[in-house]
Amino acid sequence: MNVIFEERPSLHGYLIGIASLDAPGSLNALSLPMIDALQDRLQAWADDPRVACVLLRGNGSKAFCAGGDVVQLAKRCLENPGETPELAQRFFAHEYRLDHYLHTFPKPLICWAHGHVLGGGMGLLQGAGIRIVTTSSRLAMPEISIGLFPDVGGSHFLSRLPGKLGLFFGLTASPMNATDALDLDLADRFLLDTQQDALIDGLIQLNWRDQADLQLHSLLKALAHQASGELPPAQWLPRRKRIDALLDQASLPLSWNALAALQNDDDALLAKAAKTMLGGCPLTGHLVWEQIRRARHLSLAQVFQMEYGMSLTCCRHPEFAEGVRARLIDKDHAPRWHWPDVAAVRAHIVDAHFAQPAGEHPLARLG
After folding, report:
1. Dist CA 268 CA 111 (whole Å)
2. Could you tell me the CA-to-CA distances from 157 to 41, 123, 151, 169, 219 in Å, in that order?
3. How far apart are CA 241 and CA 228, in angstroms?
4. Of residues 145, 107, 65, the one with CA closest to residue 324
5. For 61, 175, 234, 296, which has the most beta carbons within 10 A of its beta carbon?
6. Which residues contact 188 (CB under 8 A, 6 or more apart)?
7. CATH code where residue 330 lies
8. CB 153 within 8 A of CB 307
C-alpha cells in the first residue's frame, strides 16, 4: 500500500503517530490503497487515547506528495471513452473524504511538506492543523497541464487567496516557495529540511498531559526561529499588483489572453507562467474560473461535493485522459485538446461539470 505507520513512545506515556508516504519512485503519488490506509489509520489514531499527536510526511528527498496517481484513472478512461470508470468514482470519493477528514482531525496533525507538493499533496497539506514547509518546498496546483482542474479542496483555498492570485495559480500552475506559502496562508511554519529529526525528538519529549498546546507551540516556534535565516525571497506577493490588474477581466477568455501576452515578458517568472498556461487545457481554464467564482459562497463540505461531480465529468470528457496520456503515459508533451481554442468552449460544456451525480451523493454526509 506504500504507506508506513509508526507509533513512537513519548517520555510521558503517550504515542506519536507517524504516517510516511512511501512511494518515492512516483514522488509519493497517492493511490487508492494509500488513501484508504491513511483514512483507516488516522481514524484509529483519533480514537486511541494513547496517541497524542500525528506527523504526516513523505519518504525520499524529492517530494512530500506530487499528487494523485492519475495514470491508472486515465487508462480506464481511454479504454471506455464517454463513461465514468468505477475506479474514478471510488478514487475521488475516498480522496476527498480523506482530505475533509484531515480538516476535522481532533488531535494535533502536523504535515511535513518538503519538496514537490502538488495537487493531491496540497489537499493533504491544507487539511493539516500544522502545515510545515521547508527550504525545498515547491507547492503548486498543476492540473491545467493534464486537463483536470485544481481539486482536493482547491476551489476552497484558491478562492480565498488575495486578489486574483487564486485564479492565477489555477491557470498557470506556478510553483510557490516556502515564503510564498507563508505569505498566502498556505503554510504555518518554515523549517529546514534537516530539522525533521529535531521536530520528532521534540514531540517525543513533550509532556502531553499538561499544557500540550503551549509546549507544542513553543517547540515549533523555537525550531522556526533557528531556520528563519534561510527563508527564500518572496516571489508572488511582490507581483500581486500586476497580476491583479492583468486578471481584472470580465471573462475567462479575456483573462487567458491577458496572461498569454506575457509569454515574452521581461519578468521570467511571469513569462514562464504564461507559457505553461498556453500549453495547458483551455477547458480547465474555464473550470478554474467557474469553480473559484462558486466556491466563495460554499462551505468546505460543499466544495468537496462540487468537486466530486466535476471530477466524474472530467473523466467522461476527452481532455483529462488526453492530458495524462501526453504528460505522464506517452510523455510526448503534445496534448491534442478536443477544444484547443479557449474561445470555442461553450457555456453548456462548462456548466455540465457542475451538475451533481444522480442518487445519493457519496459525500453527502461530510460534516
Report:
1. 31
2. 26, 10, 10, 11, 27
3. 26
4. 145
5. 175
6. 130, 131, 132, 182
7. 3.90.226.10
8. yes
* Full pLDDT tens readout for the chain, 367 residues: 799 999 999 988 999 999 999 999 999 999 999 999 999 999 999 999 999 999 999 999 999 999 998 999 999 998 988 888 999 999 999 999 999 999 999 999 999 999 999 999 999 999 999 999 999 999 999 999 999 999 999 999 999 999 999 999 999 999 999 999 999 999 999 999 999 999 999 999 999 998 999 999 999 999 999 999 999 999 999 999 999 999 999 999 999 999 999 999 999 999 999 999 999 999 999 999 999 999 999 999 999 999 999 999 999 999 999 999 999 999 999 999 999 999 999 999 999 999 988 888 999 988 6
Q: How far apart are CA 125 and CA 132, in angstroms?
A: 8
Residue 348's H or E segment, with its range, is helix 347-352
Cell numbers 471513452 label which residue? 81
Kindly state whether residue 367 falls inside one of the protein's structural domains: no
Count Cβ atoms within 10 A of the Cβ of residue 101 and give its class: 0-12 exposed, 13-18 middle, 19 or more buried.
middle
Cα torsion at 76, 77, 80, 81 (round to 10°)?
-170
Nearest to 154 by CA among 234, 67, 238: 67
* Domain assignment of residue 190, yes or no: yes
Return the C-alpha cell found at 116.
Answer: 514537490
Q: Are 136 and 116 in contact (CB under 8 A)?
A: no
361 in a domain, yes or no? no
Q: Which domain holds residue 97?
A: 3-354
Count of domains for the chain: 1
H or E element that contains 18:
strand 15-21
Give the number of other CB atoms < 10 A from CB of residue 197: 8
Who's near 363: CB < 8 A, 6+ residues apart? 93, 96, 97, 100, 301, 304, 305, 308
